[in-house]
């Protein structure tokens, strides 16, 4: 029998970082408020980036160390609980068990799900997103396991580095010419190619997956070219925001996400959205949707404070970051090579600041092996947006390697 109450002051749908931050903010603003988090997975909120970073790359890192301790705040956490509908008109949600739960205010923080390909049902084929996915992949990988990673982006590049560090024989298969070429210019992608190959990772550009065949070994069948055999296949094809509840309830959708105003309120009364699903107005870049941890943390906290009665505007340009073997970066804004890229390197050639421009305005800054400079990067973007920083003066704004 469920121990859920008939109604709560605050109902949060989704069990990730945004939900945790919102719950903590609500409790800080209103310690007596009743709060429940409804999550359709069996694990409590955890620091998701660690699933593809720390757990593979850092000695002594454990899954338990990633849990955020959400219930320490006194909120109720209902795991393995799927919400099937929201009813803004009567301020209620419905669960898969048929329970109706009322709310005074509701937060949608349903996150994103892995983008899927038409693959057979085989436990050796993995879409990587959750703690269960980590446990399963770890159970399949040991020294010498042949793992084929499909995808050329953020999650694929991180997992390839992590799996290689764990001793697997890793190959990465992607449609582009080089890994991460949508983000990095040739100066960096060429370096990464050398690094990955020196660590035993095979990089297979120009690969377009047609199907996966099962048998004693898995076989990747490309649209053209040679087939690839593997013991395990990991598909890192990006993510899709989970906006099904919002769409079904008639909330306004924009740019693939749930449209919110400056306080993260949706088009429905007393319904808010945060994290991966929220389409918000970035103070430097305008309307956008961001699938990175910093946005989930900050937007969850902001939504929680507003829900608890302290109206707080979301005025934030999120950062994102990654570690790739011995290299690392932090970035703000649009790190996209379809923009003009201005590169500033240090004398040693191992650290850089990259500026991404559109119409002579800095839309993004990438700090390659350069640290503690994210606030300055935002200042540069703001000054460029206001026409106060000519592109000729970008060199010297941030010292590469700092």
UniProtKB/TrEMBL annotation:
GO MF entry, a single one: NAD(P)H oxidase H2O2-forming activity
Pfam families reported for this sequence: Pyr_redox_2
Gene Ontology terms describing biological process: mitochondrial respiratory chain complex assembly; programmed cell death
InterPro entries in the cross-refs: FAD-oxidoreductase/Apoptosis (IPR050446), FAD/NAD-bd_sf (IPR036188), FAD/NAD-binding_dom (IPR023753), FAD/NAD-linked_Rdtase_dimer_sf (IPR016156)
An example Gene Ontology CC term for this record: cytoplasm
Residues annotated as domain FAD/NAD(P)-binding: 8-300
Domain of life: Bacteria
Protein name from the UniProt record: FAD-dependent pyridine nucleotide-disulfide oxidoreductase
């Amino acid at each position: 029998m469920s121990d859920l109450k008939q109604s709560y002051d605050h109902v949060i749908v989704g069990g990730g970082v945004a939900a945790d931050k919102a719950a903590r903010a609500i409790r800080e603003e209103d310690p007596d408020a009743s709060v429940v988090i409804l999550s359709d997975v069996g694990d409590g909120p955890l620091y998701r980036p660690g699933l593809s970073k720390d757990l593979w790359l850092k000695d002594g890192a454990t899954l338990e160390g990633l849990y955020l301790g959400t219930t320490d705040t006194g909120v109720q956490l209902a795991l393995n609980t799927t919400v099937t509908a929201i009813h803004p008109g009567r301020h209620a949600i419905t669960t898969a068990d048929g329970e109706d739960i009322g709310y005074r205010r509701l937060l949608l923080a349903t996150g994103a799900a892995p983008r899927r390909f038409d693959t057979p049902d085989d436990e050796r084929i993995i879409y990587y997103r959750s703690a269960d996915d980590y446990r399963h992949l770890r159970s399949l990988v040991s020294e010498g396991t042949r793992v084929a990673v499909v995808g050329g982006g953020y999650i694929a590049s991180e997992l390839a580095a992590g799996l290689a560090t764990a001793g697997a024989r890793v190959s990465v298969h992607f449609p582009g010419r080089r890994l991460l070429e949508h983000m990095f210019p040739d100066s960096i992608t060429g370096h990464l190619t050398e690094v990955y190959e020196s660590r035993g990772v095979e990089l297979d550009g120009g690969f377009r997956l047609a199907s996966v065949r099962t048998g004693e070994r898995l076989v990747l069948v490309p649209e053209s070219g040679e087939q690839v055999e593997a013991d395990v296949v990991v598909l890192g094809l990006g993510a899709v925001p989970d906006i099904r509840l919002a769409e079904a309830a008639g909330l306004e959708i924009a740019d693939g996400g749930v449209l919110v105003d400056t306080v993260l309120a949706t088009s429905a009364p007393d319904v808010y959205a945060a994290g991966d699903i929220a389409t918000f107005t970035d103070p430097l870049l305008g309307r956008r949707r961001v699938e990175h941890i910093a946005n989930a943390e900050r937007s969850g906290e902001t939504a929680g404070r507003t829900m608890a009665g302290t109206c707080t505007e979301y005025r934030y340009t999120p950062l994102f970051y990654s570690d790739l073997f011995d290299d690392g970066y932090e970035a703000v804004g649009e790190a996209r090579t379809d923009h003009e890229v201005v590169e500033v390197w240090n004398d040693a050639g191992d650290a850089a600041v990259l500026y991404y421009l559109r119409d002579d305005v800095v839309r993004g800054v990438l700090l390659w092996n350069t640290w503690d400079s994210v606030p300055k990067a935002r200042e540069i973007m703001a000054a460029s947006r206001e026409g106060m920083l000519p592109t000729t003066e970008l060199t010297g704004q941030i010292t590469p390697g700092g």
